[in-house]
Amino acid sequence: MNTRVNIAGIELKNPVMTASGTFGSGMEYAEFADLNRLGAVVTKGVANVPWAGNPTPRVTEVYGGMLNAIGLQNPGVDVFMERDLPFLSKYDTRVIVNVCGHTVEEYTETVEKLNSTDVDLYEINLSCPNVKQGALAFGQDPKVLEETTRAIKSASKKPVIIKLSPNVTSIADMARAAEAGGADCISLINTLIGMKIDINRRKFVLANKTGGFSGPSVKPVAVRMVYDAAHAVKIPVIGMGGISNAEDALEFILAGATAISVGTANFHDPGTTIKVIEGIEEYMSKYGVADINELVGAVSD
Amino acid sequence: MNTRVNIAGIELKNPVMTASGTFGSGMEYAEFADLNRLGAVVTKGVANVPWAGNPTPRVTEVYGGMLNAIGLQNPGVDVFMERDLPFLSKYDTRVIVNVCGHTVEEYTETVEKLNSTDVDLYEINLSCPNVKQGALAFGQDPKVLEETTRAIKSASKKPVIIKLSPNVTSIADMARAAEAGGADCISLINTLIGMKIDINRRKFVLANKTGGFSGPSVKPVAVRMVYDAAHAVKIPVIGMGGISNAEDALEFILAGATAISVGTANFHDPGTTIKVIEGIEEYMSKYGVADINELVGAVSD
Amino acid sequence: MKRKENAQIIEQVELAPGIWSLKLKTEMAKEAVPGQFIGIYPKDGSRLLMRPISICDADSDEGILRVVYRAGGSGTKEISAYKACETVDILGILGNGYDMDAVKGKKVLLLGGGIGIPPMLYGCKALKENGIDCAAVLGYADSNMFLKDDFEAVCDTHIATMDGSFGTKGTVIDALNEQGVSGDVIFACGPMPMLRAIKSYAAEKGMEAYISLEERMACGVGACLGCVTKTVNVDHHTHVKNSRICVEGPVFKAEDVDI
Amino acid sequence: MKRKENAQIIEQVELAPGIWSLKLKTEMAKEAVPGQFIGIYPKDGSRLLMRPISICDADSDEGILRVVYRAGGSGTKEISAYKACETVDILGILGNGYDMDAVKGKKVLLLGGGIGIPPMLYGCKALKENGIDCAAVLGYADSNMFLKDDFEAVCDTHIATMDGSFGTKGTVIDALNEQGVSGDVIFACGPMPMLRAIKSYAAEKGMEAYISLEERMACGVGACLGCVTKTVNVDHHTHVKNSRICVEGPVFKAEDVDI
Ligand SMILES: Cc1cc2nc3c(=O)[nH]c(=O)nc-3n(C[C@H](O)[C@H](O)[C@H](O)COP(=O)(O)OP(=O)(O)OC[C@H]3O[C@@H](n4cnc5c(N)ncnc54)[C@H](O)[C@@H]3O)c2cc1C
Ligand SMILES: Cc1cc2nc3c(=O)[nH]c(=O)nc-3n(C[C@H](O)[C@H](O)[C@H](O)COP(=O)(O)OP(=O)(O)OC[C@H]3O[C@@H](n4cnc5c(N)ncnc54)[C@H](O)[C@@H]3O)c2cc1C
Ligand SMILES: Cc1cc2nc3c(=O)[nH]c(=O)nc-3n(C[C@H](O)[C@H](O)[C@H](O)COP(=O)(O)O)c2cc1C
Ligand SMILES: Cc1cc2nc3c(=O)[nH]c(=O)nc-3n(C[C@H](O)[C@H](O)[C@H](O)COP(=O)(O)O)c2cc1C
Ligand code: FES
Ligand code: FES
Description:
The complex is a heterotetramer, with two copies of chain A and two copies of chain C.
Chain A: E1 5-7, E2 10-12, E3 16-18, E4 40-42, E5 59-62, E6 65-68, H1 77-89, E7 94-99, H2 104-114, E8 121-125, H3 136-139, H4 142-155, E9 160-163, H5 171-180, E10 185-188, E11 192-195, E12 197-198, E13 203-204, E14 210-214, H6 219-232, E15 237-240, H7 246-255, E16 259-262, H8 265-268, H9 272-286
Helix pairs in contact in A: 2-4, 4-5, 5-6, 6-7, 7-9
Chain C: E1 3-16, E2 19-25, E3 37-40, E4 51-54, E5 57-59, E6 64-70, H1 74-80, E7 87-94, E8 108-113, H2 118-129, E9 134-140, H3 148-154, E10 156-161, E11 168-169, H4 172-178, E12 185-189, H5 192-205, E13 208-212, E14 228-230, E15 242-244, E16 251-253
Parallel strand pairs in C: 8-9, 8-12, 9-10, 10-11, 12-13
Antiparallel strand pairs in C: 1-2, 1-7, 2-6, 3-4, 3-7, 5-6, 13-16, 14-15
Bound molecules: flavin-adenine dinucleotide (2 copies), flavin mononucleotide (2 copies) and FE2/S2 (inorganic) cluster (2 copies).
């Protein structure tokens, strides 16, 4: 039974990864889940310099999910290279660094610093709804997305995954723009933009007013967008959004995802990634699927 | 205590309405909820001629919500005027007719027929994700939306509510386009586009592949969009998307909705509308709110 | 009148692997007609829609409804964990049911397949009470013949099993033929292939057949238009060629539906 | 080692209106330090995040953890309905706890306000066990003085009530002043205004104060960066001026945080 998948020339032992920002740099969840078993660890977004993020409250629960407005707090790429990468290198898993920035230059500066490391892939966050300038702006206009992708791609010595925002009219257009800009892979969905109001205080629950909406509640939107994106481009697609178990993961794979990420579900059960890996294997045995790649995009009418 | 609100010159005894397509023409739920108590009944979408809708399965449950791809099945405006309107006229509530069509002419034909009736308002569905031509196409491009609104408005002798799709990059742009086209009011959100795959059969659960996603799961997106839309235009906004209880309804009102609609929650509890009305009154007593209009858009930082 | 009600659970037992019998204390029992169904609401917040389940039996004196269901998916599995003394929300009584007046003086064949067997039990009891002659033919997958004793206690019962472990090997139609069961009218419930076969069988034999259809439902009361079946003629309510299974059905005259 | 565990409920009782005491059978009791907390997961699918609740007491011999919490919102209300013999998922042990070594030979004042009172009980017991002198000052809203007896059984206990129905009328600081309680170090937990007042009070008196902070949490283990507090200096982990309450806290030296 083969569970190996290939993303832009990088082989993953299985298609199960962690979603950026929900798994720290791997360290925090290493007590709960054996990182050696994961297809890849995707780190929290990192920038050229430390970011302090947004004021609190930054997170809140909503029906079947949560909102977050962390604001991409991170210690900066230098600390990340000194502390987090050496930690991750000890494990037999692929390392994907999620990169954020306010400007194209900030993205390329971070990527250039990381070029000398043994990081496997970059995931470029062009879709964070929680920072005032940049990020989301890059991710909501196909032309800007294409140009930004091209600039980052030319600074990069590793394959580049472009992470797409679901807060758009046509996800297919955005997927095509990333491909046209030279992306080696796309990942989606980042969070939907949501809001929660405290009716007793008549105030926004989050200091940032809006937050990124994730968790099981968003899954139907995510599956649809992964299906649309996978049909729009030839590069591989990484699917995420509400995956909590193997059934969810398989839905994304059948919709066209070559790999999938587990995000918010880690907060509900830190052992989710491992259960997803085991559940996919059980499904493959049950239905006699010899190679997981047979399942990628295998949904039919 | 005043719970009356005003939509384009039409006074509603309270802000609680039903969401189109989830309450039939009122007849089906009259056994469960006293229609006399509702601010308004919004009917299932009606077209110039009968529509057979999509093949089944048309509905399915998803986490905290459902997908539907009814495809706007309806008996046509003539039957509607003969059978459903006389039934609704017996009640002391406002009647809002939801209108659908494939072309601008189909919309205007229906509206013109209804002009001679005692219908209070039209809600124009420019945002149904479940019909191949028309509808959604009208609702995803601001220019098309504006022109379509203008054409329908000039055919109409009643105030016009334009119902917006949430499947867009900027809801504020769409709201402004409706206002520019002469809309008297906007309502949102219609359903998000979602997909569910049956992993055992490796097929789409819905015959239509995708369906409109509604229910408690979509609420954070809906509240955010109502807030954005209400800040973009001067005309009143009707809010909906996942409202299941009075707290949810108040969240939309605080975000800027003058009235709200209860949709999918009717399927979970046919008495929801009445409970929402009572809960809003309790909240007003508890906090000494003399007039519900004080709460409209009253959220602060 | 249709209503949502919080009903007390009187008994919940597993009849066969994954097949559960649930008895509920509810006044709805007094209104129930065979072929009708109720909606049972799961309690978990992730599952909002009711599960439509046919009435298997109703004791109108005691006010007790019985349903028998397969715990297949997430909602019915959740429901099967409820214990006696807990309560559960139900929506009912839903649908039309079998027309008892139309079969006066005729012999009715009750054909049930798999999880379509339970509603036939209440049908059988009601026919007997109305002095109408009937026989039941039940099709099971294997020897897990839930409700068989209940049927045998009230009427002439014939069995088919797909694996041949009991009665006729094959379908209910095979049993009809092999065991020489005959009658004037068919009441049937079961999987779609069985219903299609019965439709042809009835047409061939010139029998009237009433079949109970299934479709995914949201409202259960005719409001959402989720649960339609295609019909041969234009439906009086929808004005197109389809009917709502939750209101005009679930029982249809086989010749009226395009299945 | 931090882990998610399905723990048996041993006892669930309401101590005062809306204030519940829950005892859980778990090996985590053996690792618990005062000031630490666990995350309790609601079961309903609409609520996915754990509720952070401080440890009120731990019996390491029997392996029993006790928490006392207010059933205020939807999740804690759900949790308060769980009965003994049911199980519940918990995440633990989380956070740093009060530093017992730093207070050797000093007198500790345990200041608890409202639902910040429970963790002080375990703090008090641990101090006594370590032979450290202490006194508790508890601030309640009114005469619903939950846990008062538990404190009185182990240490010198002073009471303040906001409505003046018992002890000093006012806050814990009013009680400190009025009842002339003094010490070297403060351990405190309670609402933010109280903690701010304690921070100033300690600065004024030149006392060391350790305060337990609250913030909305998603992961509880330092991964999401949801639960930060502003700090005076750059934090060693985050490299910006904020610290994760779930890992570096919830207990901070008052002078280190910018509250
Ligand atoms: C009129 C009618 C009567 C029925 N009577 C019985 C009965 O007596 N005993 C019995 O075991 N089953 C009966 N069924 C089928 C039963 O409703 C489904 O098996 C059940 O809804 C599946 O729910 P789940 O939680 O197991 O599956 P899930 O997969 O969790 O269901 C997801 C959604 O799909 C719907 N769904 C899934 N399968 C079906 C189906 N086959 N038919 C309709 N909706 C479906 C569910 O209601 C739910 O909304 C009946 C169906 C209908 C329409
Ligand atoms: C370290 C720590 C220790 C705590 N110890 C206790 C304790 O011993 N006893 C006690 O009664 N309470 C304690 N709290 C507060 C308790 O966590 C909240 O009251 C509880 O999470 C509210 O959940 P809910 O279901 O009632 O409210 P909901 O409104 O349903 O909660 C929605 C979301 O907001 C979060 N939330 C709401 N209020 C708070 C809050 N004040 N602090 C943190 N998260 C919140 C919830 O965890 C949940 O994620 C502690 C909080 C922290 C951070
Ligand atoms: C607390 C939190 C922090 C996140 N931080 C990042 C981030 O730094 N970079 C990024 O690309 N996505 C970030 N995301 C988005 C997730 O990686 C993922 O795209 C999204 O949450 C949907 O998946 P899920 O529903 O499984 O969580 C974050 C999500 C959460 C919940
Ligand atoms: C079964 C179903 C049918 C619907 N039909 C219509 C329709 O005919 N016209 C329309 O404008 N919206 C239709 N909608 C959308 C709802 O009116 C509403 O905008 C949406 O469901 C969000 O609200 P909710 O989450 O409260 O259901 C339909 C929704 C559902 C679930
Ligand atoms: S289930 Fe809604 S019309 Fe039948
Ligand atoms: S709750 Fe996630 S970092 Fe503290």
